Prior knowledge:
Number of strands: 13
Order of helices and strands: EHEEHEHEHHHEHEHEHEHEHEHEEHHH
Shape: globular
Structural class: alpha/beta
Number of helices: 15
Helix content: 40-55%
Largest sheet: 7 strands, parallel
Radius of gyration: 21 Å
Amino acid sequence: MSKRILCIFPNDPLIAYYKKGEIKKRYFNPKNFFDEVHCISLIEKDIDEGKIQKIVGTAKLKIHSVGKINLKNKKENLSGIINLVKEINPNVIRAYSPLIEGWLAANCSQKLKIPLFLSLHTQYDANRKLAKKKDFKKYLKLKYTEKFIEPFVLKSANKITIVYKIIEPYVLKHSTTIPEILHNKVDCDRFFNSESIDTLPQPLILSVGNLTPVKNHKILIKSMQKIDGHLLIIGNGELYDELNNLIKHLDLQNKVSIKKSVLYENIQKYYKSAKIFALAFNSEIESIPMPVIEAMAAGLPIIIPHPKKGNSEGLEDVAIFSKNDNISFGNNFKMILDDKNLQEQLSKKSLQKSKEFDILRIEAREAEIYNELIKHMNSRERNN
């Protein structure tokens, strides 16, 4: 069998994932399907491959740091990227964004006749609406990509997967390719069988997510004012100082704390130590973020905002849906903490639902998709 090679255009430099503690085993190489994985990193110098080897499993990892490429200089750098990918000679190209990384990947796919596998984790139309209200400069940039970048990427993709159903209308607006829902994956055994951390305050309410406006952490912080418990937020981002100031302003230092990061290899211990998991994300943009799946795998009761109609991802009988305000979240915290039977019922439902996102199941489908793309390409080459 000839060597199988994958070329990836990640959304961010890999060192950023490393610093956040988000290096997950075989994330870029499901079931060790590939022998080599090459990452095109849009930075001058990325991390040493040895530090993140597990992200590609048993494959040989090579990171190609090509320098900063953006919307302004993309065309002058394109031929160099195409030549690099031609030299790598991959069986498949994969991208996780329809923006600059996806544009480079799509051009390589078109020019070199290599199948493109595009995975989407964000509802970009909803992002545009949000940016229009809060960041007009970002909005103008996203309007440009909506017209000149994203349609080309989506139309070029041979396969598109989405992590939430809420992303589907965005894909169908620009492409005739019907996307497949392939949720984020979690190692259920690792999260369920983890040890807890004895030193954490109890009863513990856990929230995991970047400290950005769309995650609405202010709602959770304010909801703790009348709760006899402790909220631990794990995450970092632009609102770190602002959220800490809010905690002090409300005199909640004994009830709320923020931990910037936890190594992914240890994160399961924090879930296992909690009584409840809560996230007040913007349900226009997300419906079942990765931390929600991890929390279910650990057997936690889940409190999240009401989803958009038709986008519950099957959580209506599993999670507690809350109005996205501090009073509603606070009432739901109290309801669960005061009722042991309810805690047990919700825990069982979470564990049962989490099996749908188990790493072995999702990895198997990912590897299957890669195999289908390669077979299709080989068949097309034989017929030409």
